[in-house]
């Protein structure tokens, strides 16, 4: 139990990143590597503002806006300059490394003895683990409800249709450049907010904390889809959040079993590869079962 609550808490904070990755990877059908730059961007903006005396809520809001701007840049490179989406994300990610250094003034910025969103709740008498869990639950529910409402609107439906069939939605008179940019804006805004929350939870912001975040997000999305299904958009959002929690629990377990922390990225990559291969293995297994039934009848 001592390990479970902090693990679930971290899973909830990272699930906001997973929701952002889901938005580009599944809804827009784009592999957006801007995530690896917008996550530390959110952490850098929030940390720099907190150190300079801003309130935690203002810091998180500004972090989200900064992430949105990063998404707009990637969208502009992709839609207006016709740079492939993957390369556009890489270009923005590389540029954000320098931007993050500029914002923080150094590679690492400590938040020790600085008021954060978690220390505000501590003042009400809650212990640290409970505070992180409460903030994680409230934040995740807020963004899940907001996403569910938005993607039920006309513009939200247009974004979903753009990822499903861009030619069809373009033929219906929708400006797909706008919907793609808007989708990338929302995705990286969520990722940056997650970065701001994780930085406040960890007590520091680091310029290298975005390395591997796209794989973490994909792992959460794929694990959630494999284990909990994709019957509806609401079910998809719940699956992504639960997938993030399951991923964190798996990581905590393998660390408890003695896996070196340096091997975590390798383990995550293998886990994602296996999860992505599950539909293929499932189809082959069903095909073998059908053949077995056919031969048995003969």
Main sheet overview: 2 strands, antiparallel
Tertiary shape: globular
Mean pLDDT over the full residue set: 90
Order of helices and strands: HHHHEHHHHHEHHH
Helix content: over 70%
Strand elements, count: 2
Poorly predicted regions: none
Helix segment tally: 12
N-to-C CA distance: 55 Å
Strand content: under 5%
Given helix and strand content, the structural type is mainly alpha
How are the strands of the biggest sheet laid out side by side? 1-2
Describe this entry's structure for a reader:
It is a single chain. The protein has helices spanning 4-27, 35-51, 56-79, 85-104, 117-122, 128-150, 154-164, 166-171, 176-202, 213-228, 233-256, 264-297, and strands at residues 108-110, 204-206. By secondary structure, it is mainly α. It has a two-stranded antiparallel ribbon with strand order 1-2. Helix 1 (4-27) packs parallel to helix 6 (128-150), helix 1 (4-27) crosses helix 11 (233-256) and helix 10 packs across helix 11. The chain is globular and about 75 Å long. The N and C termini lie far apart (55 Å). The mean pLDDT is 90.
């Amino acid at each position: 139990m001592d390990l479970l609550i902090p693990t679930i808490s971290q899973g909830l904070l990272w699930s906001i990143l997973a929701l952002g990755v889901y938005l580009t990877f599944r809804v827009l059908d784009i592999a957006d590597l801007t995530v690896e730059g917008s996550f530390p961007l959110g952490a850098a903006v929030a940390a720099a503002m907190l150190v300079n005396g801003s309130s935690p809520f203002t810091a998180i809001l500004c972090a989200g806006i900064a992430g949105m701007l990063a998404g707009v840049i990637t969208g502009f490179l992709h839609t207006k300059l016709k740079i492939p989406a993957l390369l556009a994300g890489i270009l923005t990610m590389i540029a954000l490394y320098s931007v993050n250094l500029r914002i923080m003034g150094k590679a690492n910025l400590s938040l020790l003895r600085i008021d954060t969103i978690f220390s505000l709740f501590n003042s009400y008498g809650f212990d640290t683990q409970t505070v992180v869990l409460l903030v994680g639950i409230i934040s995740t529910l807020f963004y899940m409800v907001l996403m569910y409402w938005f993607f039920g609107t006309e513009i939200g439906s247009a974004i979903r249709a753009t990822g499903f069939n861009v030619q069809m939605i373009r033929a219906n008179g929708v400006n797909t450049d706008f919907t793609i940019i808007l989708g990338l804006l929302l995705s990286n805004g969520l990722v940056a907010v997650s970065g701001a929350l994780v930085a406040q939870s960890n007590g520091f912001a680091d310029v290298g904390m975005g390395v591997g975040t796209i794989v973490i997000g994909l792992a959460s999305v794929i694990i959630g889809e494999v284990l909990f299904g994709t019957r509806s958009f609401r079910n998809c959002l719940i699956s992504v959040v639960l997938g993030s929690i399951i991923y964190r629990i798996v990581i905590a377990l393998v660390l408890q079993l003695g896996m070196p922390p340096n091997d975590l990225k390798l383990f995550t990559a293998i886990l994602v590869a296996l999860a992505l291969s599950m539909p293929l293995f499932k189809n082959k297994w069903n095909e073998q079962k059908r053949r077995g039934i056919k031969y048995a009848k003969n």
